[in-house]
Amino acid sequence: MNTLLSFGHGYSARALARLLPDGWRVIGTTRSGDKAEALRAEGVESAIWPGSDLTQALDAATHLLISAAPEAQGDPVLREWRDAIAARAERFAWVGYLSTTGVYGDRGGDWVDESSDLRPATKRGRARVEAEAAWRAIPGLPLHIFRLAGIYGPGRGPFEKVRQGTARRIVKQGQVFSRIHVEDIAQVLKASIERPNPGAIYNLCDDDPAPPQDVIAHAAELLGLPVPPEVAFEKAEMTPMARSFYAESKKVRNDRIKDELGVRLIHPDYRSGLAALLKDGG
């Protein structure tokens, strides 16, 4: 039986699980009892981790997905389970690690692809570079690295803030972000499982890197509400976390998911993605 063990079975992993064919067994870890109950309602065997022994799950797994983010002490999965995973490396058909396009750092709005050198500009980006390297260092592991742009989808869109009047169009000259709808993340992961290529690295983003203020403006227009006024980045009140996202500006190429995996994006730009969210009640 094909069995996916998903470490940190969150937003993107849940979308993948919904795409897997009948007959797959999915075991997902989470940190809370409430989330574990929600996963079970979706047909996922849940395990609260850290805190439970996953040896039997690793023994059963044919596929691994790692969504858990690095912590101050490094990658939490490797910290506890590296030796066990390494001992079983050649038994896995596919291993996927969800990373971030933040590993490329700031490019002043220029393009990057999977062959670009890594220049992380933030602590989070540096932690991801270290985690990627640690996973690649496990001999014989059929590892696939997925570098995700900004994720949006059901429950993660700009509409609610626009409706509430709390959305802000923060403008920083030359700033562009790449983004990806969660449905497209799921279909890329599924395509990779069906066509494994150990060692491959894929950027997951849509075709239209865009300034963040344009996305907010389009969301307001779709709702028929006033477009929020622009706020200069230098004058905007932001948390350190939010401000750090504006430290990087780049456009991310996604040719490899199309050429190697045959993926055709469901939402090739934010306009398509936002229209779908609104249609579905988002």
Automatic annotation (TrEMBL):
Q: Which UniProt keywords apply?
A: NAD
Is the NAD keyword given for this protein? yes
- InterPro entries given for it? NAD(P)-bd_dom_sf
Instruction: Spell out the protein name for this chain.
Output: SDR family oxidoreductase
